[in-house]
Amino acid sequence: QTIHQKDYTIPDYLIDTVELTFDLDPEDTRVVSRLAIHSNHDRGNGVKPLVLDGEDLTLVSLKLDGVALEQGAYRIEDAGLVLPSPPERFLLEVETRINPKENTALSGLYSSGPMLCTQCEAQGFRRITYFTDRPDVMAVYTVTLRADKASCPVLLANGNLVEKGDLPDGRHFAVWHDPFKKPSYLFAVVAGDLVHIADRFTTMSGREVQLEIYVEERNQDKCEHALRSLMRAMRWDEEQFGREYDLDTYMVVAVDDFNMGAMENKGLNVFNSRYVLASPQSATDDDYEAIEEVIGHEYFHNWTGNRITCRDWFQLSLKEGLTIFRDQEFSADMQSRPVKRIADVKSLRSAQFPEDASPLAHPVRPESYVEINNFYSMTVYHKGGEVIRMLQTLLGHDAFRAGMDLYFERHDGQAVRVDEFVQAMADAGKRDLSQFMLWYDQAGTPVLTVSDAYRADEGSYTLTVTQSCPSTPGQPEKKPFHIPLAMGLLDREGNELPLKLAGETEALGTSRVLELRRETETFTFVGLKERPVPSLLRNFCAPVKLEYPYSDEDLNLLMTRDSDPFVRWEAGQLQAVKLIMALIADIQAGREARVPESFIESFRRLLSDDRQDRAFLAETLTLPTENYLAEQMAVIDPDAIHQARELVRRTVGELLGAELTSVRKACAPKAPYRPDDGLSGCRRLKNLCLSYLMAAGRQEAIDACMVQFRSADNMTDSLGALSPLGSCACPEREEAFASFYECWRSDRGVIDKWFAHQAVSRLPDTLDRVLALLEHPDFDIRNPNRVRSLVGAFSQGNQFRFHDASGRGYRFLGDQILRLNGINPQIAARMLTPFSRWRRFDAQRQELMKKELERILAEPGLARDVYELAAKSL
Ligand code: ARG
Ligand code: ZN
Fold first, then answer.
1. What number does the ligand 1 atom closest to the CA of 372 have?
2. Is 337 in contact with 564 (CB distance < 8 Å)?
3. Of residues 134, 129, 132, 163, the one with CA closest to residue 146
4. Which atom of ligand 1 is nearest to the CA of 298?
5. Residue 236: pLDDT band by 50, 70, 90 thresholds?
6. Which of 186, 260, 864 most suits a substitution to test ligand 1, by most atoms within 8 Å of the C-beta?
7. What is the CA radius of gyration of the chain?
8. CA 611 → CA 51, 536, 614, 615, 616, distances in Å?
């Protein structure tokens, strides 16, 4: 059953207050819910039925204004509980029973290790009790929790603790009240045997907030970074957006079994433990950054998501796109802004662009869905974030900030649409943003085709920019988008030229934002003594593909001289793409493929330049991924892509051994590791050098790897050595993986990495290893992180081996999806992504992938989540 945006109607009934009482038990929890309900429509034309959503609930009793309802006064239907003709205003009391232990879907109330916890977004609350489970019904919640005191000493819910005490039979209770009205998806409960670390934060207006991070006891010493990150996020939101926290406590709980990254429940965030737990020995530099980012993300939701929420789920990007933008900016301020921007662009291109080019393409604001969980997508989140960034680029920083202030001022406490947000921006910036709205409603990645002409007699230079956008499901034709194009012009020496458009009286700086509105736009710059080199799409100012016929010389100039770090990096990537594409053509034609001297020379120059920022240099020296290269091909040839890319890596390793070794030495640790020692760029560069040396396959490199592996005092360097060993057909590989396992077997997060590093190995026996790992005692199909680290890493992080022409990889994935279907539909659906790209491959692979999709669709009892994606993919 498909839900359409255009069918939205306001709720028939509203709920003002919710009183919930939980008698918690892992296998038989009783929930009593008291709802103060009133009609939200004019009753002149009759009474509408009240429909309360419910799923996998056992109804125990039902009372209306204190009186038990007779059998005929209500119905239980597939979708939930129906009262055909309730009064105008009444109190409904519903008692239900649920079994958290059997809840392997991890939606609603479920058990994870020694605790019970909840995940209600998007529609999990209906798996706890009957309710109008939609975000535009907002209520004030009071929650009483009762549980066995010995096994469940900690009882948490949203808001403030108002009372607690003991009960007979070794039980105890706690009462929580959340003064802020909220939609049901922000409800949360956690109960279990947990410890916490705490600190205090004083807000800008002087309010004291208690911060608490709850974990299982064995993880007590791994919370410090999350807590510090939270304090940085709170300060940053005050400084950048003037937003202050609003409750007396802010709690974060880490759980091992979690479908997504984390959840912004009001005052009680629940996190996947991988985004909380970190110790210097067990977490990588990337882990530290990811924790800071996700902690920030959930914290920023308190204003963009919780104080102002979504009217309906089609508006998901209202909170997610905006909050992604905010967390990206936070991370950029905490780390290196250019490196962060590059990382974000890479992830957009490697995951969102392919989604936009697949049968699952959908707009940032989808117009329909079968299962909303399938739309927590790269498009809604990350393209949505880019859309917000474009608004900032178009309006300028100050007007954008004024637009944010206006949005908060107008809509605090409301559930609104994307339109309200964009209107606030339009009003604050005094701009017409009606065409800009197409970014929310049209899917597909626009392509900008740029051509230019220089007229020496006039000293003028004309850029012609034509936009187009491929058709996507349900949208054969597209209207032109409103696109900011940040650009500059360079002379042949690499100097930035003043930018003066024809008709202007003076030049306006050396970098400016052009606005594209029509299909074709031209811009003529004057006062130019020679033909300039255009620097386009600075800071990746729009989520588009840009086509301009750069010469190698142009790219060299941009790479070394442009003022914009993104453009410098991009120029290097374009060179690498050009080179690898040429090698692929040679390989496919059976010609000899060789890496040109000039490419190696430019790598040599980069490696010898020790003035550069090392994290940025590492990005420059990293070749485009196989996934990204695949995107550039009409028909993806995973074998040729792998061969060509490896040829470049091997050649670099062979010819630049001395340079790589000396950079490794220069970056070698001089003091014991500290996560905040400012040397993460150094470690990244050094480990990249090691991987190039390993690509050349010499024993010295293997020895160097083993030395690093044995002596590393931090996880970044351990994995920096383990990772290339994973693709090395040498005895050292077995030794390293075995000893790594022995050392870390009691640390789940690290063992996830151990699984993943085997799943992404380039060696020919990888699938056999993966199959064997499915039987490993530490593999647990019910744990999403473990599934991602084995099944996900192989199918989404190992294009070469997954797309083996035999189709064995496909069969493996099909099997795992079917297995997951009955356990955790959300995770099963997530695993389907690679199959949705089947049309991009050759006929034989297409056939094999299609067969798997058909096999999945033929399965009886297919979950809605899996059905929707499989059906749309075909
Ligand atoms: N709102 C959460 C976040 O962005 C994501 C939770 C989504 N969960 C789900 N099952 N759809 O941080
Ligand atoms: Zn979010």
1. 11
2. no
3. 163
4. 12
5. very high
6. 260
7. 28
8. 66, 26, 9, 12, 11
What is the ipTM for the molecules in this complex?
Answer: 0.98
The span from the first CA to the last CA of the chain, in angstroms, equals: 18
Q: What is the pLDDT of residue 544?
A: 98
For 743-785, give the secondary structure using H, E and C: HHCCCHHHHHHHHHHHHCCCCCCHHHHHHHHHCCCCCCCCCHH
Q: Number of C-alpha atoms within 13 angstroms, CB side, residue 12?
A: 18
Q: Compute the distance between CA of residue 624 and CA of residue 633 in angstroms, rounded to an integer.
A: 13
840 Ramachandran zone, left/alpha/beta (phi>0; psi -120 to 50): alpha
Asked whether the beta carbons of 356 and 869 are under 8 A apart, the reply is: no
The tokens describing 281, both together, are: 């020995």
**Assign residue 244 a region: left if phi > 0, alpha if psi is -120 to 50, beta otherwise?**
beta
Residue in 212, 298, 631, 659 annotated catalytic = 298
Question: Residue 156 is encoded by which pair of tokens?
Answer: 């948490």
Q: 376 in ligand 1 pocket by Cβ < 6 Å? A: yes
Q: Which of ligand 1's atoms lies nearest the C-alpha of 297?
A: 12
> How large is the average pLDDT for residues 23-33?
98
Displacement of CA 749 from its chain's centroid (Å): 19
Q: Burial code of 73-83, b = ≥16 C-beta within 10 A, e = fewer?
A: ebeeeeebbeb
pLDDT band at 45 (very low <50, low <70, confident <90, very high): confident
**What's the average model confidence in pLDDT over 102-125?**
98
Entry field: residues in the chain? 874
Quote the tokens at residue 443: 């899917």
- Give me 285's structure tokens: 């530099």
User: Ligand 1 pocket, 260 CB below 6 A?
Assistant: yes
pTM of the predicted model over 0.80 = yes
Task: Look at residue 71 and give its three-state secondary structure.
Answer: helix
Probe residue for ligand 1, chosen from 103, 117, 119, 121 as the CB with the greatest number of ligand atoms within 8 Å: 121
> Are residues 84 and 75 in contact, defined by beta-carbon separation less than 8 angstroms?
yes
Question: Going by C-beta distance under 8 Å and a sequence separation of 6 or more, which residues neighbour residue 219?
Answer: 254, 273, 277
Check if the beta carbon of residue 776 is closer than 8 Å to that of residue 816. Answer: no
